Amino acid sequence: MSVQPGWYVDPADTETRRYWDGEGWLGAPIPVDATPPDGPPPPEPPPAPVGPAEPATSATRDAATAAPGWPPQQGPPPGYGPQPGHGPGWGPQAGPPGWGPQAGPPGWGPQAGPPGWGPQAGPPGWGPQAGHPGWPGRPPEPRPHGHRLAGYGRRLAARVIDFGLVFALNVVVNGWFVWRWAQEWAPYWQEVFRRAARGDTSAEGLPLPSEQSNSLLVAILLIATALWLAYEVPAMAAGGQTVGKRMMRIRAVPIAADQPLGFRRALSRWSTLGLPTLLWYCAGLGLVLQLVDALSPLFDHPLRMALHDKRAQTVVVEVPNRPDSAPSNDRNQPPGDTP
Question: Which residue intervals are annotated with compositional bias (Gly residues) in the record (predicted)?
């Protein structure tokens, strides 16, 4: 899910607004305090084609082809009048071969110039349609609500810290169920290792675990999912930070406004990443889904939103070094104006 189309403050110039069409900026900017129109701006008229101008008089042609430093209206040097009788080719329009009004070094006519220097030419990537609309080359990085976007390294470190804390909770609460499940499978794996040591690869007669092992695995996954939910959702709803995010000085905020997520948005954000834990029972399918979600910010531009961010419409930003100081470039900007 992408940012909804609408008028937003331009990250490149916070004194103006531009229309975001869901994929890029559209149209010309307007002052930030002006009332934007309903819907997208009208399309800009295409620039008038630049073509060669037809010389109006012979004087203009003479001026265009004269040698550097010659005045536009200067006549021929003395002795080049119409009647001097210097022989064929030296009349009023004559001159040395190749010096006529249209002559010059090859490629220096009215339409000529170095290759690629025509009216539409320029360095690659700097044309009107190059890069992001309205920006030459690569556009500047967005700053939601005046904050820098959190880097992937910080987000990964925060998630590892949170997983460590949730694992510690599971050791305390879920430890007995894990121990009972391991006891169910211990005879099976001991026999497999004994046969492997003798070079026996047959699977006949292996002691299989009882039906209770499946019930224990379901209980383990349910308890692990509940512990993760209880650890993350209340903390994210209140301040957009878990213990790991607080240590890495990052937090999650809604795209619409710089405010707490609230319980519903925090639950929606967590469920995309946390609920697949229940699918670990299905040949590890849940773990694959969680890995895809964890890597998704690497491939999302420009807001680096993970799949759970897209579902809840949140972004992860850096926390300023001084939490009591407001962002300088967001002082006159209403909340949620930057996509």
Answer: 82-92
